[in-house]
Amino acid sequence: MADAAHRILELAEHALSSPFPLRVRAWDGSEAGPPGAPVLVLRRRRALRRLLWRPGELGLARAWVAGDLDVDGDLYAALDLLSGLFWDRDEPDAPASAARTLRRAAGVLRDPDSYRLVRRALSLAGAGLPPAPPPEELRRRTGIAHTKRRDKAAIAHHYDVGNDFYALVLGPSMVYSCALWPAEDTTLEQAQWAKLDLVCRKLGLREGMRLLDVGCGWGSMVLHAATHYGVRATGVTLSTAQAAFARKRVAEAGLTDRIEIRVQDYRDVRDGPYDAISSIGMAEHVGGERYLEYARDLYALLQPGGRLLNHQIGRRPLRDEDAYHVDEFIDRYVFPDGELAPIGVTVARLEEAGFEVRDVEALREHYARTLRAWVGNLEGAWKEAAAATSPGRARVWRLYMAASAVSFERNRIGVNQVLAVRTAPDGRSGLPPTRTGWLS
């Protein structure tokens, strides 16, 4: 049994019909694979059982979250190599993925070579039922997706992990969305300040205006807008933990007369009209079936001439599928019921709701750098972060953020700020004639 790595590599390369790009280290200490490549470490036989019972992305994620599998070396390089096998499977003209190939190898036993290798793999992995998923996995959901009750439960799964954990990852800004990096030496705090200020300038905020921040998180946007632009701001979130943290920050800043934080669904906001609405990193939770309703609700809450800044992650268009896409790992471990759509779909829905879209700015590379900064924070405070939530949950976030950084860098997903306006009945937008004018 001192050659487990060689046998695992043989199985993988047969399933892929090509060389496996990572080096493999097994629980028996054996290693095999290309020298100098990042090392995929199978700490326990259970890691192989997870991959055999659920080939592809979900089996890999379960092994990672449970601590059965790790990477020795450059995590980003390893994920980039693995992404071609697992996460690129739906891209146009992509080769057959490892997920499909491994399922075929496990299920189609008429091929003598596949039959022999699968039997060897099962023997190597050890007998037993499928390992139970790690406790961090969200396995049971009831009801129709994107109802108010189910959305609240989904938000709690993601955002009520713990304010102490998020403080370690996000840093003092407590901003959980793409930052804006104007220079190489910009710090994370400076980059988040620059992003918030860009949103304020695009919205044309001025003293005395009313701002609604949908999905306000820990209150950073409303605090920035009230402090630097003199607005009266309302922030809504479904997370009770976020709301408690945001209210404390508002009180400490002496801005309770200017800022209100509510635990409230955006569909229940009825105190418009507002002069401006910001929605930063929230629309990914809305869902394809509800997106037009979301856009119409925000349109109704704006006064004529009011602006919406919709900051949202999008994905590349794919063939032969619905406009909205759900990732299996992210759906079970990170953002339950989250859906990504191409930017063209988002713009079309906003305009269908009545908005005039005036500007779209892509910030894809900025999000990759933001995620790398968050991963660095997490790794630098690993013991504290694991203690603040759980080791499994910390592993979820490390995998999710590092894999997302690679996806942004490889242009598999992007992030866009869409500036839209509710024009007046006579067609006037109230916007300056050029982009430079509304950024000054």
TrEMBL record:
Question: Which family is annotated?
Answer: Belongs to the CFA/CMAS family.
A single GO molecular-function term is: methyltransferase activity
Q: Which residues form the Polyketide synthase-like methyltransferase domain?
A: 165-420
Which keywords label this protein? Lipid metabolism, Methyltransferase, S-adenosyl-L-methionine, Transferase
The UniProt entry, under InterPro entries, shows: CFA/CMAS (IPR050723), CMAS (IPR003333), MeTfrase_dom (IPR020803), SAM-dependent_MTases_sf (IPR029063)
| SUPFAM superfamilies named among the record's database cross-references | S-adenosyl-L-methionine-dependent methyltransferases
Q: Set out the biological process GO terms recorded for this chain's protein.
A: methylation
Source lineage: Bacteria, Bacillati, Actinomycetota, Actinomycetes, Kitasatosporales
Name under which the protein is recorded: Cyclopropane-fatty-acyl-phospholipid synthase family protein
Q: Does the keyword Methyltransferase apply?
A: yes
Gene3D superfamilies, per this entry? Vaccinia Virus protein VP39 (3.40.50.150)
Q: What is its EC number?
A: 2.1.1.-
